[in-house]
Amino acid sequence: MYLPKSFAEDRLPVLHDAIRAAGLATLVTVTAEGPVASHIPMLLDAGSGERGTLLGHVARANPQWRDTIAGTPALAIFLGPDAYVSPTWYPSKQETGKVVPTWNYIAIHAYGPLHFFEDKAPLLDIVTRLTQTHEGKRLGKNPGPWAVTDAPADYIDAMLKAIVGFELPIARLEGKWKLSQNKSAADIAGIRDGLAVEPDEDAAALARAMSDI
After folding, report:
1. Beta bridge partners of 55
2. Structural domain total, the chain
3. H-type alpha helices, the chain
């Protein structure tokens, strides 16, 4: 990832929080036919390894797990909020007119060796933990949270046979918080204020993130 120093985020707790918030990742691996990508919800086991370990599963019918070249590093991409930045928000537009549009965003790249497995017990653990993580966000909502144990055991067994698990110990972790840090304080304030009144949630989230720079 192209990572200018002004946009780099290397604080591990901040990166881990952003991974958890994103939930869905793009898993990129190398095959004999070239790179392949799948979009997969992942868990972060922060206590496993120096930088944590990512866990998830793919459909058994997805050829990625068979075609990935053993020993090649994999890449998991997590995206946070993103939004278009209009030049009309820059005070410097009125002064010089020398402004152009850009795009602000938060992105995390996690690299490491990828191991696929088919064992039932760890697969069930991943499925259960993924369910608990995301259904837990629905506490207090109607209908209430769903649990893996709500389904018949033989049905869950059949579903587990249709997936393949993976773990990705994170060897390298990059975070890019592109929040107009390369602009003047006045322009940053103008961009933040402009994003804050946009109708979409991502723009508002970026405005809040810019308040911390």
Report:
1. 43, 167
2. 1
3. 12-22, 64-67, 91-95, 120-135, 153-160, 185-196, 201-210
Model confidence over 120-158: pLDDT tens digits?
A: 999 999 999 999 999 988 777 778 889 999 999 999 999
**In this predicted model, what pLDDT tens digit does every residue of 95-128 receive, in sequence order?**
787 789 999 999 999 999 999 999 999 999 999 9
Full domain range(s) for residue 151: 5-84+102-182
Q: Can you name the residues that pair with 75 across neighbouring β-strands?
A: 28, 111
pLDDT in tens, 147-188: 999 999 999 999 999 999 999 999 999 999 999 999 999 999
Return the SS3 of 37: strand
Q: List the CATH number of the domain containing 56.
A: 2.30.110.10
At residue 29, the 3 state secondary structure works out as strand
Q: Is the link from the previous residue into 199 a cis peptide, with omega within 30 of 0? A: no
Name beta bridge partners: 39: 26
CB 165 within 8 A of CB 123: yes
To the nearest 10 degrees (0 to 180), the angle between helices 153-160 and 120-135 is: 110
Using a cut of 0.85, tell me whether the model's pTM lies above it: yes
